[in-house]
Specification:
The chain is α+β, with helices and mostly antiparallel strands. The chain folds into two domains: about 110 residues, Rieske [2Fe-2S] iron-sulphur domain (Rieske Iron-sulfur Protein), CATH 2.102.10; about 210 residues, Naphthalene 1,2-dioxygenase Alpha Subunit, Chain A, domain 1, CATH 3.90.380. It is built from six helices and 17 strands. Helix 1 packs across helix 6. The longest helix is centred in the last third of the chain and has 28 residues. The relative contact order is 0.15. The mean pLDDT is about 90.
């Protein structure tokens, strides 16, 4: 099951051109393309005539022409031309989806179009702010989207999967971790106080290999697949306390480095997903070299995660799994997602009665 009345990231803007792009979102085939004025358009990827996938067609002016019989559809989804006849059947149209461009991503609404309020798009201001240097990419991953959410909310794995980049043993053994919940989000806050910085942080922050820093990991999840992380390190960041702040919007402490890891995980099917992410840094916001270096480090780490996700999915079945203390965040996120699915299902049922 998928949440439908929510915005999903469906593409990077440069992916959507005057050549139709096929993409499956929440189990539904979609074709994305641009009109002559550059506006993005999203259709159901099947012709209303004989079900030919429309992404196999071509764009002519402001129309998408079906490859099979040449029916032409304007951005509203209405068929406006049928070769060989002067009239168009009154019901000749394809389903359309609301789309929006925000934070250098293309977003799509898979549910009731009347509810598609762009103000509800999850904010990722760091991705396009001049105060942060950001770079990201897209992965097509052979796993359920929830496995990636689990991974991001449980960073104890950094001490094992990512020892060469962003992890060390202190992340798993010496972190004080707490979970904060409300009706719309789950936040996991972790502090590793007075320990060595991992390799990536040493390079970016100029910390010595034996220099003690306070390291924070603030991870916020919002359904269905949005995870925003504020991580970093600084000498004395916890201000002499065992546990520092847990505010996602907190400023980077003086003398430290702050990193924003921005994740939008969009289901393709029950066992595959589209994974959009971006790494933002405030070390030297205007430095492309610093942004690229941090991106490359985190990209390496994410490829390590990618392998884990797909191996997990290959082993996933209906047998029960055990939970440990580190699963408090992932378990809370799954409970929140289940509640949102139940609420949307009830609302849909009431509307149909």
């Amino acid at each position: 099951m998928f949440l439908k009345n929510v915005w999903y990231v469906c593409a990077e803007p440069e992916e959507v051109t005057r050549t139709p792009l096929a993409r499956t979102i929440c189990g539904e085939p979609v074709v994305l393309w641009r009109a002559q004025d550059g506006a993005a358009v999203a259709f159901e990827d099947r012709c209303c005539h004989r079900r030919m996938p429309l992404h196999k067609g071509v764009i002519v002016g402001d129309r998408l022409r079906c490859h099979y019989h040449g029916l032409e559809f304007e951005p509203s989804g209405a068929c406006v031309h049928v070769p060989g006849q002067t009239t168009v059947p009154p019901d000749a149209a394809v389903k359309t989806y609301p789309v929006a461009e925000r934070y250098d991503w293309l977003w799509i609404w898979m549910g009731d179009p009347a509810l598609a309020d762009e103000a509800a798009i999850m904010p990722y201001p760091w991705k396009t702010s001049t105060e942060w240097g950001a770079k990201g990419t897209y992965f097509h991953v052979q796993c359920a989207s929830q496995l990636i959410v689990d991974n991001l909310l449980d960073l104890t794995h950094l001490g094992f999967v990512h020892l060469s980049t962003i992890g060390n043993q202190a992340v798993a053994e010496n972190a004080d971790s707490r979970v904060f919940r409300d009706d719309d989000s789950v936040t996991v806050a972790r502090w590793i106080v007075g320990h060595d910085a991992p390799p990536t942080y040493q390079k970016a922050g100029g910390f010595g290999p034996d220099q003690k820093v306070d390291r924070w990991q603030i991870i916020e999840y919002r359904p269905p697949g949005f995870v925003r992380l504020f991580t970093g390190a600084a000498p004395g960041a916890a201000e002499g306390q065992e546990f520092g702040w847990h505010d996602l919007g907190h400023a980077t402490p003086e003398g430290g480095i702050g990193l924003r890891n921005l994740n939008a995980i969009t289901p393709e099917t029950e066992t595959t997903c589209h994974y959009f992410w971006s790494q933002a840094q405030d070390v030297q916001p205007q430095s492309g070299e610093v942004t690229d270096a941090l991106y490359d480090q985190v990209l390496t780490a994410f490829h390590q995660d990618w392998e884990v996700f797909e191996m997990q999915q290959g082993n996933w079945d209906d047998r029960p799994v055990i939970d440990i203390n580190a699963d408090a965040g992932p378990v809370s996120a799954r409970q929140l997602m289940d509640r949102r699915l139940a609420e949307e299902g009830q609302a849909t049922q009431v509307a149909a009665e």
